[in-house]
TrEMBL record:
This is Protein p34. It comes from the Bacteria. InterPro entries: Cation_efflux, Cation_efflux_CTD, Cation_efflux_CTD_sf, Cation_efflux_TM, Cation_efflux_TMD_sf, CDF_Transporter. Keywords: Cell membrane, Membrane, Transmembrane, Transmembrane helix, Transport. Belongs to the cation diffusion facilitator (CDF) transporter (TC 2.A.4) family. It comes from Roseovarius gahaiensis. It holds the Pfam family Cation_efflux. It is a multi-pass membrane protein. Its main location: membrane.
Length: 296
């Protein structure tokens, strides 16, 4: 089992434990805010399942019907997670409305807060691990899952603060107010996650820092060529696709031009993890004098 798969399975297990703790906290207290926190955790479990399936699909090698691989499956998982976050927020708003119309006391608040606190700490540690490892493994699904868990940690802390204030002041209306704030925060988080994932599905170019790195590698390792232009890049899951035109002297043999391409491809794959490089060779009269200057 790959490291990515192990983390995806771990997310499913952790999500189940956290959901059980939060559900028990809500059952003991009857708090609408704690119910909202538990509802968000049901999304965590569902999205962990979606991420696990997406990672399995993304790991499949390229085939006749998918010659560029299945990497984008992870972006679909991240979009689905964003949609489910928004649905959870709407469910929380519904429960908060009932809390406003019929506010009630919170029972066993200490026990509920302790259970919710344990779940929050577990979520925080796992979220940090997912984002850190997800970036290292270039897995959008794991990073999206980790970022969602971080929002869960923040909302759980807010819920706990609201319950403490309600207990101290006796203003039980603070319970549904906090649930409403949690729902609004989750709505923003879900929308932001969908926007980020759609940029990957729309083949957005790499950030400028990575583009500068690619240009530098081409310039340093393209000796014998004249210039490179029409550089195009995109991310698809763990894979980074790099395409460009390489201009060589008109009298250069096919063998020598191919040697330069092999050298460039090897250098780019060493500099950029999981790089898929496509180079189109052109004769010297195709120079645009506006691309990447190759250093001798």
């Amino acid at each position: 089992m790959s490291a990515t798969m192990k983390l995806a399975v771990g997310s499913l297990i952790i999500g189940g434990v956290v959901l059980a703790l939060k559900a028990l906290a809500w059952w003991l207290t009857g708090s609408v805010a704690l119910l909202s926190d538990a509802l968000e955790s049901t999304v965590n479990v569902a999205t962990a399942i979606a991420a696990l399936v997406a990672i399995q699909v993304a790991a499949r090698p390229a085939d006749a019907t998918h010659p560029f691989g299945h990497h984008k499956a992870e972006f679909f998982s991240a979009v689905l997670e964003g949609v489910m976050i928004i649905i959870a927020a709407l469910l929380i708003l519904k429960e908060a409305y009932h809390g406003f119309t019929a506010p009630r006391d919170i029972t066993a608040p200490l026990e509920g807060l302790l259970l919710n606190g344990a779940a929050t700490i577990l979520n925080g540690v796992w979220a940090w691990l997912l984002v850190t490892k997800g970036r290292a493994l270039r897995s959008p699904a794991l990073v999206a899952d980790g970022r969602h868990l971080f929002t869960d940690v923040l909302t759980s802390a807010g819920v706990a603060m609201g319950i403490v204030l309600a207990i101290v002041t006796g203003w039980w209306i603070l319970d549904p107010i906090m649930a409403t704030l949690v729902a609004l925060h989750i709505l923003w988080s879900g929308g932001h996650l969908i926007a980020q994932s759609l940029s990957g599905l729309m083949d957005e170019a790499l950030p400028e820092g990575e583009l500068a790195k690619i240009r530098s590698v081409i310039s340093e390792h393209g000796g014998g060529a004249v210039e490179a232009h029409d550089l195009r890049t995109r991310h698809a899951g763990r894979a980074t696709f790099i395409e460009f035109h390489l201009v060589v002297p008109g009298e250069m043999s096919v063998f020598d031009a191919h040697e330069i391409c092999d050298r460039l491809e090897a250098a780019l794959k060493q500099a950029i993890d999981e790089a898929e490089v496509t180079i189109h060779v052109e004769p010297e009269h195709k120079c645009k004098h506006s691309g990447i200057v190759v250093l001798d």
